[in-house]
Design brief:
By secondary structure, the protein is α/β, with parallel strands linked by helices. About 50% of the residues lie in helices and about 10% in strands. It is built from 14 helices and 10 strands. Strands 1-10-9-4-8-5-7-6 form an 8-stranded mixed β-sheet, sandwiched between helices. A two-stranded antiparallel ribbon has the order 2-3. A hairpin with a 2-residue loop joins strand 2 and strand 3. About 0% of the residues have low confidence.
């Protein structure tokens, strides 16, 4: 068979299949009928076996018929399998032949395309040459060989006037230049203001988003050599303290829903932002301190597994944190660390891992949050920026309310909008915006503008 040419093999195999005169559909129909008849005989034998013994003549004849029918089914099955194998071999050869023909046609088509492209190029060059020839021919015909090359006489019709000295008016030029400069400066300022879509005030958030603003944090001037202290009893930053108390009150009195006649208030808050360096870690730390100062048992969880820094603010150990708690399926109380405040505990990130998002998809995290709900009144979670990683999206189902931090004079509207859309796609419950680093000297900062009220000492 290997010595026969390929196309001749196809024709022989096709003629062989056609010569048998077997129809696959008819063969399968006969096989199906035989199996149906076999099933019917077995059912009849089961019916006879109820009131006839195995040695009864009818039972013996029925067993013989079932055996013959079983043999018939086996023969038809074998024949059908052989026909299918022959047809499969025939189809494989046809497929191989068609693939070879396709390859030949593709090669011919590629060669034709190349020749056609070369022809088009030559045709274009020929057309360009014809146009140049026609243009040069017309130029040649327009040349007048008998043109008059004699020069005409030039006469002076009127003598030139005397030269005058123009004196520059410096004062008028300076006034004119000043007006032009002011106009250009105003136009440039208007253009920059139109293109600049940074969030500068609460009005910018209200104008661009439906979510409300639940807190405004003033800008605090801290020298590079100094650290930003957390809230404590002896701290004298009245504007910042009142801002944190206002944020705490806004979160404490948010209604999550109603259960019968009881108002259900959220216990698990997550602070997040659109981009890094918005100040959410500092706010999460101070919000936890504010909750603890109000005699509320509070737990702070650092869930920013890539750049978590809360352990530095509270001066605790970074090892054995959230990462180890989830991986080892341990108990929450074994990994929580105490802080200087009696009612405030912290759970650090632990050691960094390469794929923290997969860690948050584990059901064990739900058990940790439920265990924390039973022990603490409030849980503050510091999460990663939404546009930087997908870690926060994996935590949505464990969180009661999302607090979105926006840094004034830095965060842009087009950065906030896609982050809000991602939260809405996950059906996250939005507590509101916190506008951070707002300059208290701005007219829009009306929450704590009476600074002299705090600075006066009681007499």
């Amino acid at each position: 068979l290997e010595s026969i040419p390929f196309k001749q093999r196809i024709e022989m195999l096709g003629d062989g299949l056609s010569a048998t005169g077997d129809n696959p559909l008819e063969s399968r129909s006969a096989f199906a009928q035989a199996r149906s008849e076999l099933s019917r005989l077995i059912a009849v034998r089961e019916e006879f076996s109820i009131y006839l013994r195995p040695a009864h003549p009818k039972m013996i004849r029925m067993n013989d018929e079932i055996e013959r029918m079983q043999n018939t089914v086996d023969i038809l099955s074998k024949q059908s399998s052989e026909r299918d194998e022959d047809r499969k071999a025939f189809l494989e050869i046809r497929i191989q032949n068609l693939e070879d023909e396709i390859a030949e046609w593709e090669s011919a088509s590629l060669d034709y395309s190349q020749r056609l492209a070369a022809f088009k190029k030559l045709e274009s060059q020929l057309d360009l040459a014809r146009k140049n020839f026609s243009r040069l021919s017309q130029s040649l015909e327009s040349i007048d060989l008998n043109q008059n090359i004699q020069q005409e006489m030039v006469n002076v019709l009127e003598p030139a006037s005397k030269a005058l000295e123009l004196k520059a008016d410096l004062q008028k030029d300076m006034i004119r230049g000043g007006f032009m400069g002011a106009f250009l400066a105003l136009a440039l300022w208007a253009l920059v203001g139109y293109l600049d879509n940074r969030v500068l005030s609460v009005d910018d958030l209200d104008k661009n988003f439906e979510q409300s603003v639940i807190g405004v944090i003033p800008k605090e001037e801290v020298r590079r050599s100094e650290s930003f202290d957390l809230l404590h009893q002896g701290l004298r930053r009245p504007m910042f303290e009142e801002a944190m108390r206002n944020l705490r009150s806004s979160l404490l009195f948010i209604d999550q829903g109603h259960l019968g006649s009881t108002v259900v208030r959220p216990k698990v808050f997550a602070l997040t932002s659109a981009v890094p360096n918005e100040g959410k870690s500092t706010l999460a730390s101070n919000l936890g301190v504010a909750m603890a100062l109000a005699r509320s048992k509070t737990l702070i969880i650092d869930a920013d597994m890539r750049r978590g820094s809360l352990y530095e603010m509270f001066g605790v150990s970074k090892t054995d944190g959230l990462c180890e708690l989830i991986q080892k399926n341990g108990k929450l109380e074994d990994y929580v660390q105490k802080t200087e405040l009696e009612d405030l505990d912290i759970l650090t990130t632990g050691q960094r891992i390469e794929q923290p998002s997969e860690l948050f998809l584990d059901d064990w995290l739900s058990k940790i949050i439920e265990e924390a709900r039973a022990t603490y009144q409030y849980i503050i979670i510091d999460t990663a920026p939404i546009l930087a990683t997908d870690d926060t999206m994996s935590l949505i189902r464990q969180i009661d309310m999302i607090v979105f931090v926006v840094r004034s004079s830095r965060t842009q509207v087009q950065q906030i909008r896609p982050a809000i859309e991602k939260l809405e796609q996950r059906r996250a419950k939005f507590a509101g915006f916190v506008l951070n680093f707002l300059d208290s000297k701005q007219p829009s900062y009306h929450y704590y503008k009476y600074y002299d009220y705090y600075s006066k000492e009681e007499s």
